[in-house]
Write a structure and sequence with these properties.
The complex is a heterotrimer of chains A (261), B (377) and C (419). With 261 residues, chain A is α/β, with parallel strands linked by helices. Chain A has helices spanning 38-51, 82-93, 133-143, 147-154, 168-180, 185-207, 223-233, 246-259; strands at 4-10, 14-21, 26-33, 62-66, 78-79, 99-103, 108-113, 119-124, 213-216, 237-238. In chain A, the strands form 2 sheets. Chain A has a 5-stranded mixed sheet. In chain A, strands 8-7-6-9-10 form a 5-stranded mixed sheet. Chain B has a domain at 14-153: 3-Layer(aba) Sandwich (Rossmann fold), CATH 3.40.50. The mean pLDDT of chain B is 95. The chains are: A alpha/beta (261), B alpha/beta (377), C alpha/beta (419). The interface between A and C is medium-sized, with 17 and 18 residues.
């Protein structure tokens, strides 16, 4: 192995690592639930990813950290925001993409990307948690189902109802009263996805939707959100095989550029 | 120099104590003015100290029993201060109809702070037509008369012109500080600049003028920090920005070359002409269309063009929007600003300002991404 | 609790009248008529020039009632507008964007892009949409500043200012757009019809004093257009005649709108146009009836003072300021004495302060008003936070809890008084 670089994305819920070769090939990746200590999580995730290859940190030429914990990774050579990284990562998987919707654990972003994978413009959600991974988890909790189940049951919704509140606290109480009102979980689940989609299209509106559109971040794994969003936006979303590592992959790509200018 | 800056920081961090002390020593009345357009000169000429209402450093607690949380930070913080009894040193408050929040505020303040003097001006929108100017002058005259009654001191043409010249001097000095920064970006830190302007709103202008006269030659001796990414900040209507946000901008490798902020260049823009009819001169200042203000109802002057002009004049590489949460005049304007910045290829980033602890982590991500976009990574 | 909601027959006649109004506007351009959009109480002026004119809050209420508000708000946000702005502002930006870009919306709510925007600055926020559309589409704007006063002594100078702007700015702009002199005679005719209709409306108001009340504030709410944006339409007179007759009949038979009637309520702020049914279904099971409110009472409460001849502008201006409710109802300081009067006149048991999250005109001063009324009359009140049309700002669970709390408080006070 001539040269290896890594990108580590320390998010609010998970830490992700991607190891990249000089030829920009993903050699391995890892996803780990972040604990309270970002430093430990970053190191563990990186070590896990390296272990499968039989290497350790010393063998890396360059490491770029990103995500909320990016400033607290002592072994990183540089830190770059997740916005730049998601733009770069999405471009790696889909060079034709011009808009990236990234929904992570605690925030959501819509990023305009150019043909070289540079972020040109972006919008982010405000402090409200609506339309984030956290929102989804709280709602699933209120329904008493896990995320996969929620996505599944929503497919069978046949009555159209609304969860109108976009505030996490309000929406939770709304769900509880819908349940008490005798509504089926499947209808409520579908309504939750619609509410998230509406929130995200509001963000998209601030920046304008240019095709093609990719979705990245952990929430892209939720079929329910993807379906609702595609319907609302009226476009098909391109989703990488492992959407959660796009940020880390972007970080690794930047690490490679820095190591091999 | 450090002594003066320290004084500015102390005053702006805790105006309550300083003002109560000043009042005790000088035996003069202190009148709170709601930002952004009141003719402070008239209050000054009445022998009182006008100060611009500020946002406290405390989170809003008791105030929320009187005002809903979906109002802007300044309004809520002011109500909170009033019900907590922190404003007892104010002899009076003057409001005007700037936005819906300022419009209903006097009712709450009158009931909960009971200032001995309260006045409310209906300053009109900048719609075309002579009636606007006439009515505006009528309103300023009404304020003058009511202050004369309250203070027991006549406001003469001479005394008002004297006050106007003190205020003009302050405007000129502040403009000089701004020119220094434009010439040598980095010479004055963002938080310093904000304190320099903010302190002018909170102390007698004569004293502020003296301090600025002393400060300016000292500032000139400083050597500016390294050349960095040049940015312009704009917005921040009525309110100051948390100094931490300004620090963050600088720590990420940007330098603020100029601004279009209320606690900034908007405050000292436009001098008042000396004339035989000083009230009319004050009205003429209010009627100026630049800097464009979204609270003034002027649909023809484009705010974005004005900001873009500042960006170009300063060869700035980007612009940072300081948007006060729940400030409808700015919120309603923002889509146009954003669109037009993009059309002109000017990178822009939005920072939402809240009274309560701002999410510095998210702000950092926004600002850092912004600089990555400008600088390319 | 077993309850009955007795709907009025007459109010079903309002739908077709309102639909006709908005249809007239929608088709105006095809007929070569001039169109204005208007905020504040100034649409009578384009009406007098035979222009078709929309009224901002009326149109937003109409969209809310037709369940189309959410769709228009969504279009606005997709176009970049921010959700913390006034939902009426956003709704209009959404409508303009839909027409401009050909985004599909339900036909009945479509509005043509106007030839003139009249920015009646009763609410500074409502003028932002006129400014925004000028910047976006270059639509001509004429502005009239119309602040509501805090004190009685400010009333007359403001009235004079309002009148001057109408004469010097608004009327010349209309004359220019229409290419002919202003039609004062037509304005007088409109005012004559309004006078008659509003006088009948005042007679209907008398029935709110009765226990049980034969109609609710909601019934009046859907009947507001005849004393506002339908002004001058001769059909508004027979409408209120029929309404009055139906109320008289009910009163005679002692039929209440909500049976049994237990709590008589004052409702502050906007009527929840998008959610009228939702709210009445939450109140009626408790025997609670909304009867009177600051907003619905601001429309020409003293029609007897309307003098259509010889100077219609003068009498109209007085109706808005010194003779009227509009200037008196909008700020809490001047509204408070009015609220006290209504509490006495209509035997009110409790207050609901409807606090619209995006309307800073009607969300300020609520807790202090409750406090003041409680001190004077010993009756309780609650603040309900929601929005006039944006359904995302509404939490049903919260509303239910607050309503129950209000009724419990009323009950406790009633018991305490009996002792």
């Amino acid at each position: 192995m001539s040269l290896m670089v890594a990108g580590v994305d320390i998010g609010s819920l998970c830490t992700k690592t991607v190891i990249l070769s000089a030829e920009r090939k993903i050699l391995s990746f890892n996803i780990l639930r972040s604990g309270a200590v970002y430093r430990g999580a970053a190191e563990s995730s990186l070590n896990e990813a390296l272990k499968t290859l039989g290497f350790n940190i010393k063998d890396l030429k360059y490491v770029v950290s990103t995500g909320y914990g990016r400033a607290r990774v002592p072994f990183a050579d540089a830190e770059v925001t997740e916005i730049t990284c998601h733009a770069r990562g999405a471009n790696y998987f889909f060079p034709e993409v011009r808009t990236v919707i990234d929904i992570g654990g605690q925030d959501s972003k819509v990023i305009r990307v150019n043909e070289t994978g540079q972020a040109v413009r972006f919008v982010m959600n405000d402090k409200c948690a609506a339309g984030t991974g956290r929102f989804l988890e709280v709602m699933a909790g209120a329904l008493g189902v896990d995320l996969e189940e929620m996505s599944e049951i929503a497919l069978y919704a046949h009555e159209d109802i609304e969860v109108s509140s976009t505030c996490t606290v309000f929406a939770e109480s709304e769900i509880i009263s819908l349940l008490a009102g005798g509504y089926e979980k499947r209808e409520i689940a579908a309504a939750i996805y619609k509410a998230i989609a509406r929130r995200i299209t509001g963000l998209t509106g601030q920046i304008g939707l240019v095709e093609k559109v990719a979705m990245t971040g952990g929430v892209a794994k939720s079929g329910g959100v993807v379906r609702a969003l595609e319907k609302k936006l009226g476009v098909a979303l391109l989703i990488p095989p492992e959407p959660q590592i796009v940020g880390a992959c972007g970080a690794a790509l930047i690490a490679r550029e820095k190591a091999l200018p | 120099m450090e002594r003066i800056l320290k004084k500015f920081f102390e005053l702006t961090a805790n105006p309550y104590g300083s003002l109560a002390e000043w009042k005790e020593k000088n035996k003069k009345k202190v009148i709170g003015c709601y930002p952004m357009q009141l003719p402070e000169e008239i209050i000054h000429a009445a022998g009182m100290l006008p100060v611009i209402i500020w946002r406290s450093n405390e989170p809003v607690t008791m105030g929320h029993a009187h005002i809903a949380p979906f109002n802007c930070g300044l309004t809520r913080s002011f109500v909170d201060d009033a019900v907590k009894g922190k404003l007892s040193f104010l002899d009076g408050v003057v409001f005007y109809r700037m936005c819906l929040q300022a419009q209903s505020l006097p009712f709450i303040i009158e009931r909960n702070a009971c200032p001995s003097y309260m006045e409310y001006l209906y300053l009109p929108a900048l719609y075309p037509g002579a009636s606007i100017r006439d009515y505006l002058i009528e309103e300023f005259e009404r304020l003058k008369k009511s202050l004369e009654e309250f203070g027991g001191q006549e406001i003469t043409v001479q005394s008002l012109n004297r006050s106007i010249s003190v205020y003009n001097r302050n405007r000129r000095l502040l403009a000089e500080v701004y020119a220094l920064r434009r010439e040598k970006p980095g010479l004055i830190k963002g938080r310093e600049m904000q304190a320099i302007v903010n302190s002018s709103m909170l102390m007698p202008k004569e004293e502020h003028n003296r301090l600025l006269e002393e400060l300016i030659p000292e500032l000139k001796k400083r050597s500016p920090a390294d050349q960095k990414v040049r940015v312009v900040i704009y917005g921040g209507l009525c309110q100051t920005v948390q100094p931490e946000v300004l620090d963050l901008i600088e720590s990420l490798g940007m330098v603020i070359v100029d601004d279009d902020m209320y606690v900034g260049s908007r405050y000292f823009a436009n001098e008042v002409e000396a004339s035989e009819k000083p009230v009319e001169s004050l009205a003429n200042r209010y009627l100026k269309k630049l800097p464009p203000c979204p609270t003034k109802g002027d649909w023809e002057t484009d705010w974005t063009d004005y900001v873009i002009e500042i960006v170009k004049r300063n060869k700035a590489q980007g612009v940072i929007t300081m948007l006060v949460k729940f400030c409808p005049p700015h919120l309603c304007y923002y889509p146009d600003l954003k669109r037009k910045f993009a059309e002109h290829g000017i990178p822009e980033v939005l920072i939402e300002l809240e009274h309560e602890v701002i999410s510095l982590e998210q702000t950092r991500t926004r600002l850092q991404s912004f600089i990555e976009i400008i600088g390319g990574v | 609790m077993e309850y009955k909601l007795n709907r009025l027959k007459t109010t079903s006649l309002i739908g077709p009248m309102v639909d006709k109004h908005w249809e007239g506007l929608r088709l105006a351009k095809q007929k070569g008529e001039k169109v204005a959009w208007c905020s504040g109480p100034l649409f009578i002026f384009p009406y007098a020039m035979n222009m078709k004119c929309h009224f901002m809050a009326g149109y937003a209420a109409y969209c809310g009632g037709r369940n189309q508000a959410d769709r228009l708000l969504e279009i606005a946000e997709d176009d970049g507008d921010l959700p913390d702005t006034c939902s009426y502002h956003r709704l209009h930006m959404g409508m303009a964007a839909a027409v401009e870009k050909g985004i599909p919306v339900k036909e009945e709510v479509i509005l043509p892009i106007p030839d003139l925007m009249i920015s009646g600055r009763l609410c500074p926020e409502m003028s932002h949409y006129a400014e925004g559309l000028y910047r976006k589409m270059g639509i001509r704007v004429v502005g009239v500043d119309a602040a509501p006063p805090h004190r009685e002594e400010d009333m007359l100078p403001m009235e004079r200012f309002f009148e001057r702007q109408i004469k010097e700015n608004l009327i010349p702009a209309l004359e220019e757009v229409c290419g002919r002199p202003f039609d004062y005679d037509r304005m007088s005719e409109i005012l004559a019809v309004l006078k008659k209709t509003a006088e009948l409306r005042n007679e209907c108001w008398e029935y709110f004093k009765k226990t049980p009340s034969p109609w609710t504030l909601w019934d009046y709410g859907v009947s507001i257009a005849p004393v506002f944006y339908l002004m001058g339409n001769p059909e508004t007179i027979p409408y209120y005649e029929k309404l009055k007759a139906e109320l008289a009949e009910r009163a005679e038979q002692n039929v209440g709108a909500v049976e049994p009637e237990k709590y008589r309520l004052y409702w502050d702020g906007w009527l929840p146009w998008g959610f009228l049914g939702k709210f009445i279904r939450k109140m009626a099971p408790f025997g609670a009836v909304p009867l009177v409110g600051r907003y619905p009472w601001e429309f020409f409460p003293h029609p007897e003072r309307i003098e259509p001849y010889p100077d219609p502008v003068r009498t109209f201006v007085k109706q808005v300021y010194s003779d009227g409710g509009l200037a008196r109802a909008n700020l809490p300081a001047l509204a408070l004495p009015e609220i006290c009067k209504w509490i006495e006149t209509y035997s009110i048991d409790g207050l609901i302060m409807f606090s619209s999250k995006t309307c800073r005109m009607w969300n300020m001063g609520h807790p202090d008003t409750i406090d003041e009324i409680e001190r004077r009359y010993g009756i309780p009140g609650v603040v309900i936070e929601a929005d006039m049309v944006d359904s995302r700002m509404l939490s049903e669970a919260q509303i239910d809890t607050r309503l129950s709390a209000l009724f419990e408080m009323i009950e406790t006070r009633k018991k305490a008084r009996k002792r």
